[in-house]
Each structure stands twice: as structure tokens, then as C-alpha cells.
Write a structure and sequence with these properties.
The chain has 307 residues and is α/β, with parallel strands linked by helices. It contains eleven helices and ten strands. The radius of gyration is 19 Å and the shape is globular. The structure holds adenosine-5'-triphosphate.
Length: 307
């Protein structure tokens, strides 16, 4: 039924869009360890352009070796064209939700569908083609800024690279460097600030012109000023796309169209920030708890280069 053909080419296909240090190693290892996962069914069609929704239809999912399901009979409809935040306590399954949309894992029960089609029935390449991912830590390779951005889209022209950098609001900064787009980023991108690395990762994602932009704690490691600046950029680049943002930092979600609270393997609340605060439920509690916490780890401050 499933073809056992998950080869290195498939894995490489995914590396450029997503891969991030620790998570990357885990994901690549996961992919390699489970050769059947992600294999296309014989004659599987490509996924057409997404027009309506990504839906979790009674999805139950448990990681191998763990005692309890992370997602437990979860039903959830995510409408396209919206900015959607997925929030919840640590370990509640926010990243797992993204993993299932990317078909890094498949549900034990239930289905994930796009426009009504089970994503297991379409080619993995076409599914991933429609998406881009930005993680908290995104692997930058020791080559030029241009090449790092181009990893998002094989064969992209210099003009496309610059266009993506403009959208990620890092173009002006790049142009201020003596070697401009040819500047080497150094080992693991260590010549750049955390915010600049994140903007390169956003450019790498956006060059794919994805219908769906997935963000996994994309700004959680940044200081408050940088986080706010990059959040503004992300809301701009998400226009006309579907943005699904898993985060525990609620300051990032206030302006999003919709917020979904995951807890106990299910979606327990959804609505706008104002609606959920007024509900006085789980979201309100997360919000109040966060107000009383010191802000997360600070790194270097940078600002966007938009006008
Ligand atoms: P956080 O906010 O801490 O990032 P999260 O809500 O994103 O958490 P997930 O990363 O989806 O949660 O993890 C949900 C649960 O599944 C956790 O208990 C986690 O330890 C476990 N888990 C995550 N990835 C794996 C894996 N590859 N193998 C086994 N268990 C895993």
C-alpha cells in the first residue's frame, strides 16, 4: 500500500524549507528512521492550489514509545487566507499539529484534509511545495546570504532572492554590507543577530510563495523589540496566505485573525484575542499568567528596515 521509497532526495527536498538545528536533526532522523512515512501512494495526484480549508477530522496521534496521545480525537477547521495562532501550555501539541499538516507524521486515527482531500492521498512533494516553515532556530549554512535565501527555491533568480529579502525587510541591511548579497553568513550564521537570522529564514520561506506559512515559535527566542518588529513583518508577508503560528508567546498573537487554544489533546477555545479574553477561560488564564512572567531570553536588538 505504502511505497517504501523515502530516499535522501525526499529528505533533501524538505531540508531547505525547514531545517533548524536541534529540531532538524530530530526531523531528518525521524524521516530516515521511518521509510514508509511520507511515501506516495501509486498514482497519487498532486495537491491542487488550496482554496478552502485545512481540517483535522477526529485526529488522534501518539508518538512512538509515549504513553498518552498528544492529540485526542481533535477536530478543527482552519480556513485559508487567515492568520491563525495555535497556543496552549508547553507540551500540549502545538508543534505536533504543524508536523501533521506537513505530513512529517500521520494520524493514528482520523484524517488531516485539505479542501476535503486526505493529505496522505496526494504527493508529498506537492503538499510541501505549497508550504513553508519558519522555526525558532533556522539553520543558516556557511555560504552567502544569497545562497542561504535561495535554498527555499531551487533555481531562484537573483531578482527573486532580492524580492524575498525586501518582503522579509532585510534587503536594506544586506545592501549596507560591503559584499551585499555575497556576504558569507559564517558558521551557523553567527555574523548575524538573532533577528537578522530570522529575517533571512523568512526570506527563504517567502521565496517559495507558499499558500500556507507555518511558524513554529518563530519569534519566541528574540528580545521584545525584535520580536515585535518581526511580528509586524510576518503579518505583512502573511497577507493573502494562510498563516498558522504555533507559539507560547501570547504577545505575538494579539493581532491575529483567530487564536486556537489546545489543551488535553483538543481544541478547547477559539476566537479573537478580545473574544477569548472576554470568555474568561483557558486563554484568559494563559494571558494573565504570562503578564506576570519576566520576558523570555533577550538577544541582540535589531529593527526592521521597512520605510
Ligand atoms: P512546546 O510549547 O513546549 O514547544 P508543544 O505544545 O509544541 O510544546 P509538542 O512539541 O507538540 O508540544 O509536544 C507534545 C508532546 O509530545 C510533548 O509531551 C513532547 O514531549 C512529545 N513529543 C514531541 N515530539 C516528540 C517525538 N519526536 N517523539 C516523542 N515524543 C515527542
Amino acid at each position: 500500500f505504502w511505497e517504501v521509497s523515502y530516499n535522501i532526495a525526499h529528505v533533501m527536498h524538505f531540508i531547505p524549507v525547514s531545517i533548524s538545528s536541534a529540531a532538524a536533526v530530530r526531523h531528518i532522523q525521524d524521516l530516515l528512521d521511518e521509510p514508509t512515512r511520507g511515501a506516495d501512494r501509486a498514482g497519487a495526484p498532486d495537491l491542487p492550489r488550496i482554496t478552502n480549508d485545512i481540517t483535522f477530522d477526529r485526529v488522534t496521534f501518539q508518538y512512538e514509545g509515549s504513553q498518552t496521545p498528544v492529540l485526542d480525537n481533535l477536530s478543527l477547521k482552519l480556513n485559508v487566507g487567515r492568520s491563525i495562532a495555535v497556543v496552549g501550555p508547553s507540551g500540549s501539541g502545538k508543534s505536533t499539529l504543524l508536523n501533521l499538516i506537513l505530513r512529517l507524521y500521520v494520524p493514528d486515527e482520523g484524517r488531516v484534509t485539505i479542501d476535503g482531500v486526505d493529505i496522505r492521498k496526494v504527493t508529498l512533494g506537492s503538499l510541501r511545495q505549497s508550504m513553508a516553515v519558519v522555526f525558532q532556530e533556522n539553520m543558516l549554512f556557511n555560504m552567502s546570504i544569497r545562497e542561504n535565501i535561495r535554498l527555499g527555491k531551487e533555481g531562484a533568480t537573483d531578482a527573486e532572492v532580492e524580492e524575498a529579502a525586501k518582503k522579509a525587510e532585510i534587503h536594506r541591511y544586506i545592501m549596507s554590507l560591503p559584499q551585499k548579497y555575497d556576504t558569507p553568513v559564517g558558521e551557523r550564521g553567527d555574523t548575524l543577530s538573532g533577528g537578522q537570522r530570522q529575517r533571512i529564514a523568512i526570506a527563504r520561506a517567502i521565496i517559495r510563495n507558499p499558500s500556507v506559512l507555518l511558524l513554529d515559535e518563530a519569534t519566541s527566542a528574540l528580545d521584545q523589540t525584535t520580536e515585535a518588529a518581526i511580528n509586524r513583518t510576518l503579518l505583512k508577508v502573511a497577507k493573502g496566505r494562510t498563516m498558522i503560528w504555533s507559539t507560547h508567546r501570547l504577545t505575538s498573537v494579539v493581532e491575529m485573525d483567530e487564536i486556537i487554544v489546545i489543551s488535553g489533546g483538543r481544541a478547547i477555545e477559539r476566537g479573537s484575542h478580545a473574544e477569548l479574553l472576554a470568555k474568561n477561560g483557558a486563554y484568559r488564564k494563559l494571558w494573565d499568567d504570562q503578564l506576570h512572567q519576566p520576558h523570555g531570553a533577550a538577544r541582540q536588538v535589531d529593527d526592521d528596515d521597512s520605510d
